[in-house]
Description:
This protein is α/β, with parallel strands linked by helices. The chain is built from 10 helices and 22 strands.
Amino acid sequence: MLDGVTPWPEEFVDRYWAAGYWRGNTLDDLLRGRALEHGARTALAGGGERLTYARLNRWVDRMAAGFLLRGVAPRQRVVVRLPDVPEFVVGLFALMRAGAVPVVCPVGYPTEGVERLVRLTEAAGYVGLSSYEGEDRRAAAEGIAARSPFLRRVFTLDAPGGASPYGGLAADSSGCLYFPLGAVDAPPGPVPPRSSADVALLLPSARPGEPLLVPRTHDDYAHQARAAAAAVSLGEDDVLLAVSPAGSPLALGCPGVVGALAVGGTVVLGDGNGGAGAEGPVTVVAGGDGGGGRGGRARLVQVAHAGPGCDGAQRVVALAEGVVLLDGRPLTPDDEFRVAGPDGADAPEGELLARGPSVPRGYYRAPDANARAFAPDGFLRTGLRARRAADGRLIVNHG
């Protein structure tokens, strides 16, 4: 376990293993297993690419070897700030396969915020676009590297239709090395040993105030994605269109990208031209406002916030902290929820508290925030207002 991560108490570890929630799988091994079973099936479509499971897994293998060859070491943190392109998915799985820890960062996140994340995590690497909406992000990364003693590897991806003026390998005066992401490739070799109890991802919290990161282990995130997939009957014949950003809590793991790949389904990134490149019509839409007709006759549309035209959509509460409610209901019996009043006692309406096999016990390197956000019994104070309906569902106020 990384330094700065709060472990689950042993009694809860034993409970979640005994119940079958945690199964000892790393996220990248779930992908590898599906590649062995469904090699010729389409796994991922987007950005003009259509990748079968075999090709996706091979790309992940080669990029993981490329990261290791270029000095990314196991347990090092690497900030990933990419849009909804295949390289985002491949990069996440490749870093995990190399034993590194991706720090997921929205593509629109300001550079000063990225610098705070680099300092908080002591990130040794950064993966991002070379430019975005007029900002020279390669130059911005160079500025961060000059002020950070940790950042020493930067991997840049050209925006669609763009051409990098920087060519191949480059170095700056601080000793940071710069590589085109497309050149991060090497013959696969033995991968570093990993444990399912290791931190797989660091996800940004939406909690107001200081930037906080949520450490998600392979065990807890794989459980969340599998349980959400089971709850919506997601299977290998489904095509999931990720309308929300692929790195958002809803589109990444509720069941999202990870859940769809874990069951052998197909993921379409972004608008995806309505699912172009997939082997069948879109059946599940993750994100958006439920309107606009995207996904055509999808059997399920998931929305985080109710908007016009979302009648019949599934309302999803999805937090980076592993709090998931589908139409007001938890994923498993061991996902515990309370509605508490100002005094902390149960109340008809109040703050939503959560504890369970996908809810970590603390933020990353944030002891003060942990003291405020987590009760002594491990319940997370989500900051969301909620009440219980007569049928037991939890009604959450997003306003």
